[in-house]
What we know:
- The protein is of the alpha/beta class and 156 residues long.
- It has a domain at 8-45 and 86-150: HUPs (Rossmann fold, 3-Layer(aba) Sandwich).
- The chain is 37% helix and 21% strand.
- The strands form two sheets. A five-stranded parallel beta sheet has the order 5-2-1-6-7, with helices on both faces. The protein has a two-stranded antiparallel ribbon with strand order 3-4.
- Strand 3 and strand 4 (63-64) form a beta hairpin.
- It starts with 7 loop residues before the first strand and ends in a 6-residue tail after the last strand.
Amino acid sequence: MAPMAIRRILVPIDYSENSKAALSYGAELAQSFGAALDIVHVWDRPTYVSDAVMVQRPGEAHKPIGELIRENAQKDMNEFMATVTLPSGVPTQSRLLSGEPASTLVAELKKGEHDLVVLSTHGRTGIAHLLLGSIAEKLVRMSPVPVLTVPLSGRR
């Protein structure tokens, strides 16, 4: 059996310290394999938010609330990316996706452009896990490509 070629690694982030650790690990793997790094954040627009609702920041024109949420998500992505150092020579892109995180990531992976997913886990247990679920757990079960999870620092 031929070894698996890893050309593009997807790293979903949520701007937490845990996702910084996963991004660092994914970047090291990308450097080792000569792969590209695709860093994504999925922002989930609440279903009750309609583009019919217009908002205005001081000194700016009115805009749909969905556009304001997307702009804030991009600002958060830019700020997060400014706090990380990635190895030089690794082709990297960061971008936003919109939708429910687990299903949006699975849909992205089904496009066939990625060979591996590297993501953090938060280590929720008990009622928090029951209520919030786990994006990592859903990806491990539903991803068409291998998923490498990076546990919460200090956990075994």
